[in-house]
What we know:
Oligomer: single chain
Helix content: 40-55%
Amino acid sequence: xxxxxxxxxxxxxxxxxxxxxxxxxxxxxxxxxxxxxxxxxxxxxxxxxxxxxxxxxxxxxxxxxxxxxxxxxxxxxxxxxxxxxxxxxxxxxxxxxxxxxxxxxxxxxxxxxxxxxxxxxxxxxxxxxxxxxxxxxxxxxxxxxxxxxxxxxxxxxxxxxxxxxxxxxxxxxxxxxxxxxxxxxxxxxxxxxxxxxxxxxxxxxxxxxxxxxxxxxxxxxxxxxxxxxxxxxxxxxxxxxxxxxxxxxxxxxxxxxxxxxxxxxxxxxxxxxxxxxxxxxxxxxxxxxxxxxxxxx
Length: 297
């Protein structure tokens, strides 16, 4: 094994190649589908290095990381990302622990300290998983102050928040929704796109939503987005971005899904059978044949 890496490097490169060939931007090492919390510093560095080798200059490659407890944790992460040479890094929301929520002053100090510690382009995150969303006034203040902010991802369901976010900063930074549910609302309001773990299974389906929108091909958009939302519903029944279903599903179709790391556990064989049947019923273009013999969970 290469130094610092304790996974299947060939499979990881193959998966990155699928994403690259589909033309989608790629976040690596995140706390959701990237299982970033399980990576040692050496593994994290190797993941970034391999991602750059496979993606740099072909599609956007960004370091996602995990929600930090301390400011210095995120400072260390963005500096690591800058040394690695990724195109950008995401600053996840501050998780102070034990259900505590940061004040606006604490958030402003957090973001200012992290952004000032690096010259790499930065993407902000306003995510429901943290238990709070970034105040819009704070987002606007940060965008006004720091020209290295390249974008923000919003993972919530409040369309009025999304619309106001785009109105305030969408002319200066990219705005994406995290998860595909609000993809069309984001695009329709003038945003740039969406994120989601579904692209790990079928990146061409994700790409077709954007290309259909750009071409104003409403029939193809309706078909692509409908299939994507159906795939999302299947995935969400079994943990969504936790990859409890996604990795076994990928393996079932002979794709480089890999294995989950503890404490996460894959879905059962019976559950996987149901997921596979549901996905086959969608008839997503480009779906590979089922692997033989039986899929690795």
